[in-house]
UniProtKB/TrEMBL annotation, chain A:
Cited PROSITE patterns: FBOX
Domain of life: Eukaryota
Protein's name according to its UniProt entry: F-box domain-containing protein
F-box domain: residues covered: 7-63
CDD domains reported for this sequence: F-box_SF
InterPro entries (alphabetical): F-box-like_dom_sf, F-box_dom, KIB1-4_b-propeller
TrEMBL record, chain B:
Tree of life domain: Eukaryota
SUPFAM superfamilies assigned: POZ domain (SSF54695), Skp1 dimerisation domain-like (SSF81382)
Family of the protein in this entry: Belongs to the SKP1 family.
Entry protein name: SKP1-like protein
Associated pathway: Protein modification; protein ubiquitination
Spans annotated as Disordered: 1-21
């Protein structure tokens, strides 16, 4: 019993009240919130991608080492540390297809998959947004072996890149410069959901330039 | 004739007094009456501001059927305390910035105000604040509720708020796997 007049319980709180409560919770606590009951879970899901006001530390090395050790389809886990409670490590799982992480913005990690394609990944909601494949760029050419498997990429007709390195190089060398410039000019209008579109847009623009 | 004139004058005086009144009377669902500063009510509650502007304030007590007397008492108490806590010179600027400024930490007196409430009273107050469109009070109460969850596991939160776990065993397992990292099992 909670409401002395309405006889409602805490799980019956209107969704806008639940949304107001959610904005005061840091990410780990938001997840605990969502696990309490189904109404709270839908409120949490409806309030969108959680926005942490405190940055996270992510230990990518663990993930790479674990990846070397493991074979098979299981997900990888990676340690996250929250600045407000550094003694506590959160084991966050990642799909196995990711080989590198080359950046983060607005709660999204920019991951590179086994084919060197960039994927936006939210480690908390596990949402993924595939970005256009690197072969969409006319300067990148894929080379396949006899069995049809991807062997490597050729960049601007001469440099040969192992698939797993091209993605990170591509991000650092090309996208990040363009994106940084764009963000610098448009800081005010950039929101979470816009990031994917932005990278997409920049990628397309670069495509035509190259 | 003499009597009629006297009546008319009395009527006139009453009307003037009404227009001059700087409080409004609110009536809870269980029929209790509360006086609140008109200025504070209009500034802190979009719903009351609309009623005051639209002239739908009843002098004998404006019916607020959705709000019980304990919650209404807290609402009125909050409005009156708020009216006293802000220097009058700052009134205008603060009322403008209220809708646009991001939530600031509750002030000391606001913290104390919600800290003394029982869980049930807090629940009623957050609902009343939502119903009356009192953004600041909603922020203060929701902030308090979020504080009550901090550092707690889902089980502990359910215990604090007396919430029944309505997940099936399968759903719970699914959530546990999905959000395994967030459970404070260790």
């Amino acid at each position: 019993m909670a409401g002395t007049y309405t006889g409602l319980s805490w799980s019956d709180l209107p969704i806008d009240i639940l949304h107001t409560i959610l904005q005061y919770l840091e990410v780990p606590q938001r997840v605990a919130f969502a696990s309490v009951c189904s109404t709270w879970r839908s409120a949490s899901a409806a309030s969108g991608v959680p926005n942490s006001s405190v940055p996270w530390f992510m230990s990518w090395t663990d993930l790479r080492e674990e990846r070397k050790k493991m074979h098979g389809g299981r997900a990888l886990t990676c340690s996250f540390y929250h600045l407000l409670d550094v003694d506590k490590a959160y084991a966050v799982s990642f799909p196995r297809c990711f080989v590198a992480c080359c950046g983060a913005s607005h709660g999204w990690l920019i991951m590179v998959n086994e084919l060197s394609n960039l994927v936006l990944y939210n480690p908390f909601t596990m949402a993924t947004i595939d970005l256009p494949p690197v072969t969409d760029f006319s300067c990148v050419e894929a080379v396949y072996d006899d069995s049809g498997a991807l062997e490597h990429y050729i960049f601007v007709k001469k440099r040969v890149h192992e698939t797993k390195y091209l993605g990170t190089w591509f991000y650092h060398g090309v996208i990040s410069c363009a994106l940084a410039q764009f963000l610098h000019l448009n800081t005010q209008i950039v929101s979470d959901s816009k990031l994917a579109e932005l990278i997409l847009m920049d990628a397309r623009r670069l495509h035509t330039q190259l | 004739m003499e009597v009629d004139k006297g009546k008319g004058e009395a009527e006139e005086t009453r009307k003037v007094a009404e227009a001059d009144r700087d409080t409004v009377t609110l009536k809870s669902s269980d029929g209790k009456l509360f006086e609140v500063s008109k200025e504070a009510a209009a500034r802190l509650s979009t719903v009351l501001a609309g009623m005051i502007a639209g002239g739908s304030i009843d002098d004998n007590g404006t019916d607020l059927k959705q709000i019980g007397s304990e919650a209404l008492e807290n609402v009125v108490d909050y409005c009156n305390k708020h009216a006293n806590s802000i220097p009058s010179a700052a009134l205008i600027s603060s009322s403008i910035s209220f809708n646009t400024a991001p939530f600031k930490e509750p002030e000391e007196w606001e913290r104390k105000f919600v800290d003394r409430l029982s869980h049930d009273a807090l629940f009623d107050l957050v609902e009343a604040a939502n119903f009356l469109g009192m953004e600041r009070l909603l922020d203060v109460t929701c902030h308090k509720i979020s504080e009550m969850m901090k550092g707690k596991s889902p089980d502990q939160i359910r215990e604090v708020f007396n919430i029944k776990n309505d997940y099936t065993k399968e759903e719970l397992e699914e959530i546990r796997q999905e959000l395994a990292w967030a459970f404070y099992d260790d």
